[in-house]
Amino acid sequence: MAENMEIPETIGERLVKASQDAPALRHPDSPDWFNREVHETSKEKFAWAAPYDARFPQVRKQRQCFAYYVDFHRCQELMGADYAPCKFFQNVYKDFCPNFWVEKWDELREEGRFPAKFDR
User: Fold this and answer.
1) Does the keyword S-adenosyl-L-methionine apply (predicted)?
2) 117 and 81 part of one domain
3) Range of 63's domain?
4) Are 41 and 78 members of one domain?
5) Per residue in 90-114, pLDDT tens?
6) Considering only 42-46, 79-83, 87-91, 94-98, which range has the smallest mean pLDDT?
7) Is 2 within the bounds of a domain?
8) Residue at 1 is within a domain
9) How much helix, strand and coil, in percent to the nearest 5, is found in the chain?
10) Which residue has the higher pLDDT, 21 or 106?
């Protein structure tokens, strides 16, 4: 059941795919900037946000960022690296977490000093 669920792509993945199909940037004088249809289609193509999680009702998202980072690596550890639903956790933490946090956590994981366990 979980293997069949559809995981939306991240905004970065959508931008890469769109830049392969058409030029990534519009000319500053292009009338497309004021075209409602272009705006609506780009909103449908690129807008993705993590769903509401009742465990994190506060405005600050540090805990949610950390929890989804841990959930992603725990999912990969327990279910295997090729298990597709783990990508949902990755999409959420990439949506919330600043890159320098993720880089630091990756370093700590490689050194074996990360403060969470992934095998439980």
Assistant:
1) no
2) yes
3) 53-120
4) no
5) 988 988 899 999 999 999 999 999 9
6) 42-46
7) no
8) no
9) 60, 0, 40
10) 106
Spatial distance between the Cα atoms of 91 and 9, rounded to a whole number of angstroms = 7
Is this structure's pTM higher than 0.90? no
Whether residue 7 has pLDDT greater than 60: yes
> 28 is written with which tokens?
């500053």
Residues 31 and 81 occupy one common structural domain: no
Rounded Cα distance, 55 and 74, in Å:
18
Residue 118 lies in a domain: yes
Task: Tell me the CA distances in angstroms from 24 to 18, 20, 31, 42, 55, one per residue in order.
Answer: 7, 8, 16, 12, 37
In a domain, 30, yes or no: yes
Buried b / exposed e over 67-101, threshold 16 CB at 10 Å, is bbbbbbbbbbeeeeeeeeebbbbbbbbbbbbeeee
Q: Kindly state the percentage of the chain with pLDDT values over 90.
A: 29
Residues 65 and 28 in one domain: no
pLDDT computed for residue 61 by the predictor: 85
